[in-house]
Write a structure and sequence with these properties.
This protein has four helices and three strands; from the N terminus they run ββαβααα. The chain is α+β, with helices and mostly antiparallel strands and 114 residues long.
Length: 114
């Protein structure tokens, strides 16, 4: 059996960008996991919990769009600190501004379905 450790920084937000939660998450994938599967579990379990506990007036849902970037082992603590300080970051710039910066920094393109 091989050894594998892949760090991924995931970012996603609520459906229609409702100002309830914005999410950054640092995960380590195992050999039998994919980013899509992990994100599907995180989104599914959390939205189920939020809706079961009626934490929002309307039905809670996550936006389909997300991005994920790899993180080197040497940068894991820096990313953890960045994620811990999200409230502070969002006092200086909105989630949308931060999201757009990430999209540009990592060269992601938005595809518009026709």
């Amino acid at each position: 059996m091989g050894y594998l450790k892949i760090w991924i920084h995931l970012v996603w937000t609520t459906k229609n960008r409702e100002p309830f939660l914005t999410v950054h998450c640092l995960i380590s994938l195992k050999a039998n996991q994919t980013t899509d599967n992990i994100l599907m579990l995180l989104k599914g379990e959390s939205s189920h919990w939020i809706n079961t506990n009626k934490l929002t007036n309307a039905k809670f849902a996550w936006q389909n769009e997300y991005f994920a970037v790899s993180v080197s082992e040497s940068a894991v603590n820096k990313v953890r600190d960045y994620i811990k300080n999200q409230e502070e970051h969002h006092r200086k710039k909105s989630f949308q501004e931060e999201y757009d910066e990430f999209m540009q920094k990592y060269g992601f393109e938005r595809f518009v379905s026709g």
